[in-house]
Amino acid sequence: MKSYFVTGTGTGVGKTFVTCALARCARGIGKRVFAFKPMETGCAQIGGRLVGADQELVCEAAGGWQTGELRGLYQFEPAVAPQVAAEQAQVEIDLGPILHVVARGSVSADLVLVEGAGGWRVPINTGADMAALARRLEFPVIVVGEATLGTINHSLLSVEAVERDGCTVAALILSKRPTDDAAHVLDNAHRISARWPGRVLICSADTDLTELV
């Protein structure tokens, strides 16, 4: 079984896009996937309950088999950091149940993907951030970054932080949007590779990520 914690260089950089791409790629070669985003903010009220759009996307990319807590544990309406949203809702996000659900969902899975919220230092509660969750899971980390302007700095800083915290970076994946200039994206990937010896990949709509799954 392969397992990854997916983090980002920031918010809105393409973590869910990459997580879904990995899940679909694995399913395309016959693998069973458990894809899980334990917490999400900015959720919408649908049918009398809060629904996380990203949580729904990753679960559907994994095959749509996940139900209940396996689709996500924590949903909050304000589009703020998880700790802030939880405090406003007068609840505390507990890492214990997250680890328990990951263990349950991982049974019989060939690929496990756990997607964090925001970036590496985003706070979860008063004593833990996304880095703490990744360390508890003990999964290799995939860092997702934007593919264009600013990504060299943001990507290298994020990779540096992950490795300094004692976690293994399985890959840095630049999430390429259809409007991104292809030559610029490729140049960014090359410049990051010149400064960091790990695997640097570019993910677009037609990318094959089989090497990771």
List the helices and strands and how they pair.
Blueprint: E1 2-8, H1 15-28, E2 33-36, E3 39-40, E4 44-46, E5 49-51, H2 53-61, E6 74-75, H3 82-88, H4 95-106, E7 111-119, E8 123-125, E9 128-129, H5 130-137, E10 141-146, H6 151-164, E11 169-175, H7 182-193, E12 200-203
Parallel strand pairs: 1-7, 1-10, 2-7, 3-6, 10-11, 11-12
Antiparallel strand pairs: 4-5, 8-9
Helix pairs in contact: 1-2, 6-7
Description:
The mean pLDDT is 97. This protein has a single domain, classed as P-loop containing nucleotide triphosphate hydrolases (Rossmann fold, 3-Layer(aba) Sandwich), CATH 3.40.50. The protein has helices at 15-28, 53-61, 82-88, 95-106, 130-137, 151-164, 182-193; strands spanning 2-8, 33-36, 39-40, 44-46, 49-51, 74-75, 111-119, 123-125, 128-129, 141-146, 169-175, 200-203. It has seven helices and twelve strands. The protein is α/β, with parallel strands linked by helices and 213 residues long. Helix 1 (15-28) packs parallel to helix 2 and helix 6 (151-164) packs parallel to helix 7 (182-193). 46% of the residues are buried. The strands form four sheets. The protein has a six-stranded parallel sheet, sandwiched between helices. Strands 3-6 form a two-stranded parallel ribbon. Strands 4-5 form a two-stranded antiparallel ribbon.
